[in-house]
Specification:
Low-confidence stretches: 18-30, 138-145
Mean pLDDT: 79
Largest sheet: none
Number of strands: 0
Number of helices: 7
Length: about 140
């Protein structure tokens, strides 16, 4: 890859790091799910007309919070947040990246969202995005997504 060859040259590496690459790409690739992805996922999964209900969002989040001993900001319905998209986003942000990934995959797999193309697009994004590939569960033949 051209980038690897550039980075092996110290002078080009310095130039590349200081002038060409945006600062956010200097972070390790395993730093977690970006806020942009989390926000988009929350918008789609908790969308008013085609998304999950508020109580269902709470149920999923509470299950993960209890299983992993994590305090979430919106553990009861009705939410203290202005809407369920905001509540879901704030709850997702309370989890470490691997649990965010698992929770998003669970939410996207809900039977009521199986025909929602936007939800399935989010699911494919996080499932096949290289940054998250190490978080995929190991499944046998015929199992999984």
């Amino acid at each position: 890859m051209l980038t690897n060859r550039l980075l092996s040259n110290p002078k080009l590496n310095r130039f590349f790091n200081n002038t060409v690459r945006p600062q956010h790409t200097l972070l390790p690739m395993n730093d977690g799910i970006t806020i942009s992805v989390l926000s988009r996922a929350a918008d789609v999964i908790a969308e008013t007309n085609n998304g999950l209900s508020g109580p269902k969002v709470v149920s999923y989040c509470n299950t993960f919070a209890v299983d992993h001993d994590i305090r979430i900001p919106h553990a009861a319905y009705p939410f203290q947040a202005g809407n369920k998209r905001t509540a879901l986003l704030e709850n997702l942000r309370a989890f470490p990246p691997q649990l965010q990934y698992s929770l998003l995959m669970e939410l996207c797999a809900d039977w009521s969202l199986r025909d929602n193309q936007e939800v399935q697009a989010i699911r494919q994004l996080i499932r096949f995005f290289p940054r998250f590939s190490g978080w995929l569960p190991v499944v046998g033949p015929g199992e999984g997504c």
